[in-house]
Amino acid sequence: MTTRTIRAATDVGGTFTDVVYFSTDPLTGVQEVVTAKSDTTPPDFERGVMNVLGKSGVPLEEIAFLAHGTTLVINALTERKGVKTALITTEGFRDSLEIARGNRPDFFNLHYEKPPPFVPRYLRREVPGRMSQAGRERAPLDLSGLPAILDDFRAEGVEAVAICLLHSYADPSHEQAVLERVRELWPEASVVASHQISREWREYERTSTAVLSAYVQPVAERYLSRLADGLHQAGFDGQLYIMHSNCGVDSVETTKQIPITMVESGPASGFWGAAELGRSMGDSNVLALDIGGTTAKCSLIEGGHVKIISDYWIERTRRSAGYPIQVPVVDVVEIGNGGGSIAWVDDFGRLYVGPQSAGAVPGPAAYGRGGTEATTTDANLALGRINPDYFCGGEIEADMAAVDRTLGALAQKLGVDTAEAARGVVRIANNNMINALKLVSVNRGYDPRDFTLIAFGGGGGMHAVALAVELGIHKVVIPLAADVFSAWGMLMSDLRRDYFVTRLMSLNADNAERVGALLDEVTGASLEQFAGEGIAAEKVRFIRYGNLRYENQEHGVEVQLPDGEIDAAVVAEITDNFHGTYEREYTYRLDAPVEFVGAHVVAIAEVGKLAPVPLPTTGRRLGDALKGRRKVDYATEGIHEADVYDGALLEPGMGFDGPAIIETKGSTVVVHPGNELTVDDYGNLIISITLDSYGDGDE
Amino acid sequence: MTTARADSTTDPVTLEIIQSALQATSDEMFAALRKTAMSAIIYEVLDMGTGITDGEGNLASSGAGIPAFVGVLDKAVMRVIELNDRDDIRPGDIFITNDPYYGGVTHLNDIVLAMPVFAEAELVAWTANIAHWNDVGGMVPGSISNEAKEIFQEGLRLPAVKLISEGTPIKSVMEIMKCNSRLPDFLQGDMWAGIAAARVGERRILDLVRKYGLDTFNTALRVFQDYGEQVALRALEGLPKGRFSLKEEQDSGAVYGVTVEITDDEFIVDLRDNPDQDPGPNNASRDGTMIAAQMVFMNITDAHSSANAGHFKPLKVLTRPGSVFDASPPAAFATYYEVEIRLYDVIWRCLAPHLGDRLPAGSFASVCGTFIGGPHPDTGRHFTIVEPQVGGWGGSAFRDGNSAMFSGFHGDTFNCPAEVAETRYGLYVDQLALNDAPGGEGEHRGGRGIVLDYRVRSNGCFFTCAYTRNKHLPWPLEGGREGSANHAQVIRKDGSVEDYAVVTALEVNEGDVIRLRTATGGGYGDPGTRPRELVLDDLRNGYLTEEQARKVYGLDV
Fold first, then answer.
1. Which of A538, B59, B129, B311 could connect to B228 by a Cys-Cys bridge, CB 3.0–4.6 Å?
2. Which residues in chain B are contacts of A414 at CB distance < 8 A?
3. ipTM more than 0.85?
4. 3-state SS record for B309-359
């Protein structure tokens, strides 16, 4: 018998698999937090999960709630490790997947290569029958050709079938009929129809969504089964939830049906964690930044809400159009800029950082594993920001000769000394991240000065203050367990489902009832789904949004709708809200009719997420956490003698002023001169920045 | 503080940060314009561009959007400066032009908005954007007519005048504009989208100047242009030197000719020996001609982030006033874009055989501008489609041509989804498929064009198009075969079929199908050397018939 309640989360990342668990004593309320990391183990990712659970020492049989996030789906997509997939679509549209949208971001490149379709033409087949945009049948569905099509698929060794018919977002009945018939004729095949994933228009995007989902479905199903079996065999008997890209968790059974929803689960949980943390501290406007080894990701949280969108693409860069996936995904901007990003100089003496990364192998030059190019991490070492004697928590001896050599080569190309080159690398890396933060803030009409910066991931604490100064942000938070924060965020997640439905109508009093009916339709179907899983209606709450625009526009603005009935008065209120939101975002409003494009309904069911309690204190003095002092180069702010603290020994209530460095096993926090730092009750580091001390910023 | 700033003016990292901020600002303006525009051609097709120039109108960043459109902005700003008294250019002003004789460069549908940015009373920069507006009046709905003889027939001319004066909209100008459009609501929406975008850019530039100081800001702009020039000169080093000439007959019967001279530090495009200006709308302004040359120059000199005024410095373009590439008043310009893309293609074709593997074979090389309008059967409102089409690209030394891409003149332009088109336009889209017309065979074959069927749902609709590469097909390289033709068919309700490349305001009615076919690109290399497994792949995918595989590729099955 146990008296403890254990909630745990595991996060499979590209390099490491992390675990965080909270064990709470219900009698005393005392909470213990344990984190651990071990290597990710492709292709059998579940092995790494079992390893890290073992390493952390968590008793599996005592875990009540286990959340799990994984890069499995995104890896299967980007490494092309899915299954042979076929497509069934509307007559006249089999080439839609290959035609795509005809665009190319790399304007001047006449050798641009269009991303090839995941299904070749001979496996894209058509069925007659048409729905109208209003969801009425224009021509009946004819399935007489289906058996022959499936015979061909079987003969070609197809394992998964995607179905996407025109206007199925408006009425999926044709698609459902195809789905049922395929299941009947070929029960062994993995089949997915677009309406199961997306109820939004744009046939190329929806087709691509169905195809990519089918492509990874068998792989993901097998993985989830093996994971669940492995955990149960090892004694786990609690609830297993899977992290989704919409910042919620969902059951294994639901996830198996549409595993594509896991595509961005890692970033999603981190951003959700940041939103929860912000809310708990009374900071509902948060810029969240996750700096890892190869990329930096950021997202904007307004009013405590993470923004969930369905306009998501993989492999979309300045050089490639990428592939769309219309699933609810946290609105994230990702750039190729992390600790391992390589610094380089072009033929014209211009310095760049990333997007190429040294990865885990050979890694930064400092790893001493043969890395011949300087990375951001190497520059941070050279500037004394990272402690060479406590590199990677003391697990790796920093090869400072290699750091000097690679930075020296860079400096020579730039015509400056090594220290100047290192400062340049850090400044350029910071600038890349600033541009990413601008994309989610100023590019969307938000002023970063109204936000708190919550930075996590291995490199979050290293760069956060410099970025905040540049953007005029006054408060930076480095959370407890910042290096495993994605796993932490999962423990904060509710069971969440996002429904996006396109249904075009004028937003006016006459249509109040239609808007209401649409919302009821979505919430009703959702409740039914929950009921089928044994979750009672009173456990579920809904947040409803309308996607609104001026008539004739295309891109809508999402506006939260009031709870309750939608009547003429509520429509007027919604319209007012729209005008206001629109003007904030775009500087003007129009005296034009407003259109309702569709609904976004969020269903949230409490599944007993974690409530953190204040950490215990030992009465330790600040001086006990002080490891020493060293010279640190703050790039634009000059070289200062900084106090160096052991992060593991810091306790709630402690505080000090910069210049300082905090070292933990997984990360380094750089506190600039003039910053004030306090440790809050939960072990988070709060850094206050007085911008006056920076003048106008640079120099 | 001031001293610190002065010291930093030569710090390359600071300059780099300012340059990247300018690019980020162009992107931000683009996002603002895209999201708020009312016309599908802007927000969906992204027929638009944004950019920043220095105080004199030199392009300071590579901008965002269709490069051929970004290339308009510097030229427009320079004309605004030339045509307005310096004292009359004030903070908060926004100028508007659409007229090729007044800095508009393209045709009257493309509206440029330009806003001066003042810091410390100095004119330090301009933010500008251009977008295609659906209807600016003129003789036909959509304003674009193949029948126009004078620019006066093509719509309202806005001669680089003020639209907003020190922050206050000039209502009379706006009312005149609205009154001259068949779609005043769209016009108003698109106009405010452009204004918002220009203002966003102004704010960001002022932030930059405030932060880094005016001297450093100006230095950053200058250094960046020097960098662009260095990139271009370095690229010229790698090109063969000499004079290269080509004459090519066009579908219209006109013969376009070009001589390109490449030296160590110049790239001279001589177009003086070309026909007199067209009595119809097939003309380019000198500025527009410059853009066509700039586009080829960018393709060849590998411009990415360096597409600024400096990069263009080695480029010289010679034209003859009164010719098709330097038309004089009152020449019409509606289909300027086909003239420019033809010129672009002629320069490309002229150089391709001499530049090794740098350039692929010819593509469908037409904007395939398509205009359809009429009453929407579901709403009763008027609808207008204005859209370019995707087509096949030519094969290259490295691989097959891309299928279904917008032309080299476009960039991150998107086609319209059938589901959106059916809702918005009240037409049925019967099919959107790759065009299986034969052609473009080669070791590396040309990419496929498309077949797009619009079924008309109401009476009294119109159809206008002006496609080139209809008679003279996409050209091959190194022994490949010619591509296929761009054309449009109207399949009447009674089954009769009409074939068009150029037609204006053709009446189409309920039940008629407008079938658009775009070309397969030219092939590269001898088809006989195409690997057998690729031929078999094409056969399996239906890109080839067995007969073609046998005849052209010598496949025995």
1. B311
2. 12
3. yes
4. HHHHCCEEEECCCCECCECCCCCCCCCHHHHHHHHHHHHHHHHHHHCCCCC
